[in-house]
Amino acid sequence: MRSTRIAVSAAVLGALAFPLVSATAANAAPQTAAVAYGECDKIGPYEVHTSAVTIRSKASSKSTALGVLYKGHKFSVHKTTKDGSWVYITDKKTGVTGWVSGTYVYPTVYTCLH
């Protein structure tokens, strides 16, 4: 009886922990949206996909922090690194220009339905 309770408890805890682990990975992946035929290969606007991301002076997490780009802020994208890991932006609300991580700031990617 005791071993059954332990097994059930372990299964319940595992089931509760799994969505937390998988949610982190899912949030880091670019979002896709299904669109009608004729709009294939369309890239949507860049958006902040976390609550906030640090704006930095260089494309490095060790560089000087210049400001914070919050979810919902409008911003301009000037360029990206070749691999897309960093995005050079200007926050339209604060005027701060710098690099943000491409892990958290990326465009919506559309998937075509045929």
UniProtKB/TrEMBL annotation:
<protein>
    <recommendedName>
        <fullName>SH3b domain-containing protein</fullName>
    </recommendedName>
</protein>
<dbReference type="Pfam" id="PF08239">
    <property type="entry name" value="SH3_3"/>
</dbReference>
<feature type="signal peptide">
    <location>
        <begin position="1"/>
        <end position="28"/>
    </location>
</feature>
<dbReference type="InterPro" id="IPR003646">
    <property type="entry name" value="SH3-like_bac-type"/>
</dbReference>
<keyword id="KW-0732">Signal</keyword>
<feature type="domain" description="SH3b">
    <location>
        <begin position="43"/>
        <end position="109"/>
    </location>
</feature>
